[in-house]
Every structure is written in C-alpha cells, then in structure tokens.
Amino acid sequence: MMHRRAFLRSTAYGAAAIGLLPGLSGPAAAQTVDTLKLFVPANPGGGWDQTARSIELALKQANLIKGAQVTNVGGAGGAVGLPQFVNQWKGQGNALMVAGMVMVGALIANKSPVKLSQVTPIARLTGEFQVVVVPAASPHKTLADLVAAFKADPAKVSWAGGSAGGSDHILAGMIAKAAGGDPKKVSYVAYSGGGPALAALLGNQVTCGISGFGEFGEQIKAGKLRALAISADKRQAGIDIPTIREQGIDVELFNWRGVFAPPGVKDADRAAMIDLMTRMNASPAWAEQLKARDWTGIFLAGDAYGKYIEQENARIEAILKDIGLA
Amino acid sequence: METLGLLADGFAVALQPVNLLWAIVGVTLGTAVGVLPGLGPALTIALLLPITFHVPATAAFILFAGIYYGAMYGGSTTSILLNTPGESATIITALEGHKMARKGRAAAALATAAIGSFIAGTIGTLGITFLAPPLVELALQFGPADYFSLMVLAFVAVSAVLGSSVLRGLTALAFGILLGLIGIDLQTGQPRFTFGLPELLDGINVIVVAVGLFAVGETLYLASRPLGHATLTPLKGRAWMTREDWRRSWKPWLRGSVLGFPFGALPAGGAEVPTFISYFVEKKLSRHPEEFGHGAIEGVAGPEAANNASAAGVLVPMLALGLPTSATAAIMLSAFQSYGINPGPLLLQTQPELVWGLIASLYVGNVMLLVLNLPLAGLWAKILAIPSPWLYGGILMFATIGTYGISQSPIDLILLYLIGGVGYLMRRFDFPAAPTVIGMILGPFAEQEFRRALTISGGEFSVFATRPLSAMLLGLAVLLLVVPLLLRHRR
C-alpha cells in the first residue's frame, strides 16, 4: 500500500496555519480529526485521486485537520479497492474513501460481490457534467441531427467514450432511450480513457464521442470538435453549449464524486465526519479547489446522500440493463 | 527559420542554472526508477505531482521530462545485466543483451544501448522540433482497422523469436495471448478468466510476467543445475565496444530510431511494438543471423534505439494537440492542469516558453544521460563478477521487491513465483519465453482494435481491405511471411 506523507506539512504555509497563528484561524478545538486517512480505489493521477488531494489541501488550509495519509489501491473502476476498504478498514473512525458514479456502474457490470451499500455514506462533494461532441467535419450540427441519424440506422452511428458501462456509455444509452431509440443498438466503441477516444474523434474515425467536459473543452475551444450538448441540468456560465434537455431529450447526468466511511463505524465518528465535510464545504479553501479543477459543487450529506446513492444504484442498474450489460 | 528562433529561446530557458539542476535531478531519478522493475515513469511522476504546488511550471516539466527519458535508459541496464526488464519496452533488449553479458560482453552491450538511446533520443527530439504538426495529422489517420493490420504485421515479427521449434514457439505465443486476455473486457465491461478474484480484474501486469519468466524462471533453472554449471564470464577481452561493435551498431541505431519515432507518435502505438519489429528487421538484415539468440549486438542496438525514439514520439501528440497517448503523457497533462494551463491544440501558441523550454531540456537531458550512463557501463558490468549463487539470489530479491512496487499487492508476488515456475518448466523443456511476453502485449491490443473496427463498420469485415492504410499493412505482412518461404523453396 502506498502511503504519501503530505508534502505541504513542512511548508511555511502549513506551519503558519497550524502552529504559529492559531488565533487567526479559529480555536484549536475546531480540529475534529487529528490525522485523516484517505482511501483512493484508483491509481494516482486520476479523478478520485485528485479529489482526495484537493480534500487534503482544503482541510489543511482551513485548519480542520493536522495531516492526511492517502492510500491508493487502483483497478477496475474501484472494484479492486472496495473489498479491501470494506474488509481491512472496518470500523476505522478517521478513514474516508473517495468514490463516485463510475464505481456504481463498475460494481454492477462486474457483478461484484461487494456492494457500495456496505460502506457508510458521508457526503457527495462534486459533479462533472459531460459533453456530446462530433468531429469538426461532421455533417451533424445539432443533437437532433445525431439522434435522427441514430434512429434511421444505429449501425452507422458509432459512439466513442471510456470503458463499457462507465459514465460515457451510460449517457449514450440514456440519450438513445429518451429519444425513443433502442439503447441496445448503440454502437459503442470503448477506449481506455478520454485521450485515446479523443484521438479517434480528431481522426474522424467515429461518428460522435462522449466524455467529461474537462477532457474535450480545449479541443472544442480550438474548433477541432463541435459540441452538441452538455448533460448538466442548466446552461453553464461561460460555456455556450445547450443542455440535452433544452433540445427536447429528457436526460441529465452528473458524474458525481463523494466520500464514504468504512462499514461499522460508531455513530459519533460518522457524525464527526459529516461535520468535517460540511465545514470543509463551507470553507473558502474548498471553493478555490472547485474553481481550479472546474468542478461543480453539489454537496449533499448524511442520510440524504445515502438515499441518493440508493436511487443512483437503481437508475444505473436500469440503464445498464437497457444497454445489455447487467 | 521561425522554429530555430523559438528553439533558441527554449535553450535560453533550459540552460538556466536552476533548470539545469532540475534536469540533473530528473535524469538521475529517472534512471533509478527505470532500473527498478515495476516503478515506471508514470507512477513516479504521479507521486511527484504535489510539487506542482511549489515550483514554477517550467521547472516541473523539465524534471518530469528528465524522469521520462531517464527511465528509458535505466530500463535497459537491468535487462542486460540481470535478465530483469525494468520497463516493458526493454524486454527485447534482455534477449540478446543478457546473452552478451553472460559471454563477458556486458560493457559493450550497455555501451551500445546507451549510445543508441542517445542517438535515438536526439533524432526523436529533432523529430518533435521539426515534424510534430504534419506527423500528428498522419498519425490521426490511423483508425482501429489500420491498427489491427499493424498488429498483424507485428505478429509476423514474432517469427524472429520463435526459436528452433515453430510448434514450441507458437505454444508459448498462445500462452501469452491467454494471459493477456485475463481481466475486464474493455468493450463489454465483463470480467474474463478472473476466477472471481478482484485482483485479477485489471489483468496481469506484463512486467510481472516478463520478470517471472526471464529472471525467476532462469534463476530456478540455474539452481536446478549442478553448481558451476552456470557459465558466466565476468569480463572478456576489451571492456569497451570494439571497432567491429561500432560497425555493427550504427545502422541498427539509425533504423531503430526511424522506426520507433513515428510509432510513438501514433495515438495507440506504444513503445513495445517497435522494439519487436526492430528486432525482426535486424535479424533479417544481419550478416550474422546465426548469432541471434546467442548475443548479437544488433539485437541490442536496434530495439534500444527504437524504444527511446518512440518515447520521444509520444510527446508529439501531447505537445501538438494535448492528446495523452501513454500513461506518462496523461499524468504530465494533469500536471499542466494544476498550473491552470489547459493543454490542447493551442498549447504551442499560448505557452511557447514552456513548450520550447521543455523541448530544449530534452536535448540537454539526453546529453546528461549519455554522460551519466557511459562511464557507468564498465562499473555496472562488474556486478557480474559476483559469484553466481549470490548474484542470482540478489536477482531474485530484486525481482521480488520491484514486483511488489507495482501495486503493493501480495497477489502480484504469488503470480510472479507461479509464472516463475512456469518459466522454469519452459526453460527446462526448451520453450522460448519471449513469444509469451510479446503475445501478452500484442494479443489484447489486436483483439480490441479488431472489435472496435467491426463495431464502427457495423460488422463489415471488408473494412480491413477497403481502408488503404489497412490494406497496405496487411499486404506487407503477407509479403514478409510468404517471400522468405518462397525463396527457401526455390533454393
């Protein structure tokens, strides 16, 4: 297991915040947790890892914890890490796992024996909306054009995106279904990530592509890709792309990320963690992280979050069934 | 020329003392992680990402580029000396390199690898400087059908490592393809051959298999022989490369570079495939094909040049389009984002100082790596003077630590020794190990592209013949396979 001592700890900033100027950042009693243990069921560098890193940074800047320790156990959309978190981290009150929508889908598609319902929901933190694009040279100008082509002959419309059953595939299936087509007939071409899928789009190898907005944003700006729609609930400031719903297809999807405590933690520990995340969410340091990473804050804590996960599980399972993966 | 002016500006950035220091730190660190099997440049850079909060962008990227190039040099050292590939792109180097080392020619093998890496790295960097935009346009023309045909061509290259018995060679290849299919199928999300073990969902790491078959298998085999049977000549004759070595190395260096660079620029090219093809080409063109398998220097010079040139090629789509085509490039792109720089097609226009500073630092780093590695060649070679039982004990320990470093998972260690046991049996019954590793890399690659091509074409098999690139590559593969057979028949 990989333990990363926080790099910031010894820096002047950290020392100032923690040791030298306690009076400025609230009473020392505000520190609810001494050392937070973050479990990331993905390899360093990806979205969940970045979320863990941002949590660590924001909590320290807000003087809510002394230090954090990050453990990465990557693989299979989180299906490799989750069993470890459930079995080996059971009852640890100062531990949080970062996960999200991708894990819900991966666990269903892999028929994993370990379920997300076994861990303790703490808070949903961020969401990233997705974008549907076509190559600049494509004849399709709007989402309606693309959907019409799909309904006329599904075999002629290929959709590029991340791994099968992931958030990109799910959105493709949702659009197909809501538009009155057959989601099973979606010719989905899975790539190992946004990068290789991007290459296929730029080379005009596929009809359209779906990914997180961040991965395609620059190519859209440079005019190499044409954005047809975003999966957000409403128009986004500074982004001149209509939502899917605006174009008459009732679909909305956020690739959400959140944190979970291990199974079997004490009620007091659970309450303390919810409190910690609530305080972090209110801090300017967290707002700064959201802005720097282009994430939308969609905070939801405790029981409401638990209920949300149940709904997501049912919704995603239904979509994966429609696509033919579950 | 405008490019030269920009490059000169880049050198002005790269040659600042503090940036030179970052480059030295980078290449040294890179060489070290390249030597350790399992710890690759991608993981190292990912672990160093937090420094992006503290140092300026230029310095961070010079450091990362140093690590990236350094790892390519370091990987060959253990392949040659210990038969333990540090990187998947140096697996082929172990084939001839380790044979050379056992004959007392370790220093020559290390030297031809280092100089070849330098030449290829320089040619590759020149390629980035002058050819990036047109090359990227060409590379994007490759669709799934074309990649599949390219893999068919690469499979022909496997014939160079099949060994004396074609049946044994093909069996080893099939075993490798089977190993490669373990894990979640990307196109359907379903697990295959995982036996319900979550640790197998992401497949078996190719380094575990390569180290298991080469290092562990070989060690077990030697241990099973009477003591003193292991014929290891620490040093024979002149340590350095002879005139003959130079004469036999320079063409493979150039051919490897020219082959590797465009492969790296392909969005799904990778650094391993060009090393297989280079090995095949060198074996076919060599005047001493009988030496292949017994320590032919061309078999080190060509593949080593190919893997370094392709490492440079990988940076082409990254810098020209913001397209990450390897794990390392993807992590470097996420570092761009921590600086608020959005890597994309406009990167060259919006951040010229950063991009050209990075390119110039690649030239600088390459020179540093040559200076660092050449004098070390003789020193490293002395490792082989250690008595065999101790040396092989050390190799086993080194292989174990390195494998544990991949994912810190005990399952990987169990796999390493299981595969090591298979490697021992293969060695005992004269099955070649290289086709297994090659099959493991090429098999799943070819399968995924085949299925992508058919999904896009709506199930029409004709795409492989109607796309001009694909048809050309398939034709070439057929020629390479059939012509030698015909020639042999006529004789």
Helix vs. strand class of chain B: mainly alpha
> Whole-Å distance between the termini of chain B?
55 Å
Largest interface: A-B, 62 and 57 residues
Question: Biggest β-sheet of chain A: count, sense, barrel?
Answer: 11 strands, mixed
**How many strand units of chain A?**
11
Following the backbone from N to C, one meets helices and strands of chain A in this order, namely EHEHEHEHEHEHEHEHEEHHEH
The CATH class designation of the largest domain in chain A is Alpha Beta
* Widest β-sheet, arrangement of strands of chain B: 1-2
- Give the % helix of chain B: over 70%
The tally of domains of chain B stands at: 1
- As a whole number of angstroms, the C-alpha radius of gyration of chain B is 22 Å
Number of strands of chain B: 2
Number of structurally distinct domains of chain A: 2
Count up the helices of chain A: 11
Oligomer: heterodimer
Q: Which percent range describes the beta-strand content of chain A? A: 15-25%
Number of helices of chain B: 20
Shape of chain B: globular
Task: Provide the succession of SSEs of chain B.
Answer: HHHHHHHHEEHHHHHHHHHHHH
Uncertain segments of chain B: none
Rg of chain A, alpha carbons:
21 Å
Task: Put the structure in a nutshell.
The complex is a heterodimer of chains A (326) and B (491). Chain A is built from 11 helices and 11 strands.
Structure description:
The complex is a heterodimer of chains A (326) and B (491). Chain A has 326 residues and is an alpha/beta fold. Chain A has two domains: 4-127 and 256-323, Bordetella uptake gene, domain 1 (D-Maltodextrin-Binding Protein, domain 2), CATH 3.40.190; 128-247, D-Maltodextrin-Binding Protein, domain 2 (3-Layer(aba) Sandwich). Chain A is built from eleven helices and eleven strands. In chain A, strands 1, 2, 3, 4, 5, 6, 7, 8, 9, 10 and 11 form an eleven-stranded mixed β-sheet that branches. The longest helix of chain A is centred in the C-terminal third of the chain and has 22 residues, at 302-323. Chain A starts with a strand and ends with a helix. Mean pLDDT of chain A is 82; it is low at 1-30. Chain B is mainly α. Chain B has one domain (2-490). Chain B contains 20 helices and two strands. Chain B has helices at residues 2-14, 17-35, 41-48, 57-82, 91-102, 106-140, 144-157, 166-181, 206-224, 243-265, 272-285, 298-321, 327-338, 347-350, 352-381, 388-407, 410-428, 434-457, 463-466, 468-490; strands at 183-184, 191-192. Chain B has a two-stranded antiparallel ribbon with strand order 1-2. Chain B is globular and about 60 Å long. The mean pLDDT of chain B is 85. Classes of the chains: A alpha/beta (326), B mainly alpha (491). At the A-B interface, helix 2, strand 7, helix 7 and helix 8 of A face helix 3, strand 1, helix 13 and helix 18 of B.
